[in-house]
Amino acid sequence: MDTKDIPANVLDPNCPSRVVFQRIGDKWASLVIQVLGGGPVRFSELRKMVSVVTPKVLTQTLRTLERDGLITRTIHAQVPPRVDYELTALGESLLQPLTMLREWAENHVPSILEARDAYDDAQDEAVLGR
Amino acid sequence: MDTKDIPANVLDPNCPSRVVFQRIGDKWASLVIQVLGGGPVRFSELRKMVSVVTPKVLTQTLRTLERDGLITRTIHAQVPPRVDYELTALGESLLQPLTMLREWAENHVPSILEARDAYDDAQDEAVLGR
DNA sequence: CAGTATCCGTCTTGATACTG
DNA sequence: CAGTATCAAGACGGATACTG
User: Fold this and answer.
1) What is the DSSP string of B53-84?
2) How many domains does chain A have?
3) Which residue of B has its CA nearest to A39?
């Protein structure tokens, strides 16, 4: 990237990269998107699959994704209620870049973890007055 | 993604996807990586290029990337001091998936912004008692 | 079942000022 | 030049309890 290519609007919250990178970085959003890549899933199923997340936070995540047009929320008129979440075409189109990133992660995160250990060890030694 | 494919360790901070997605979502990290894709850059240059970030936050970002083994920091013994930051091979390998994601963003963020407007309008109408 | 309502600690980000 | 120190503010994620 050349100097002149850096958008003057990096601070613009609507800068394309910022919008997407933020969503990717969201603690649960990417996981939900990848889960929904397998087809529609109802709320309670999502909860089971991502059992560490509380209903409040899961709902927040889903609402944000819905607002961004990445998933749809369909309420089935039943008793008990049933709500299905499903990727939109837009959401599905995100699956590929997301998968590429996940593959990069699986291939290279071991190196990152090693680098962290090495860095931390060097820091420790420095602190010990060496 | 099938149910059984969901790693039981989503809460593991060392889960590959989590590590990378978090770094991508960092407010300045991805931008710095892409800037450094053009070759080594010294601290003051980075500051000018990303002029909205304070030195403290820029330093934080750089330290994190260095710890992760994505960039190197080289101090030149000069007066005045000069410090260059540069991508490692690991950092460079991240450039491609990052670019793919940025391209997806540039192509699809307009749709996301439209979706947000539509969603917000619908919400407003609902609030107005319609 | 599918959420919502409250409350709260932590982590992140930034403003401002200072230093080797 | 290349940072560090300190302080403050807000966003974020989560625990817990309750509801149509």
Assistant:
1) S-HHHHHHHHHHHHHTTSEEEEEE--SS-EEE
2) 1
3) B1
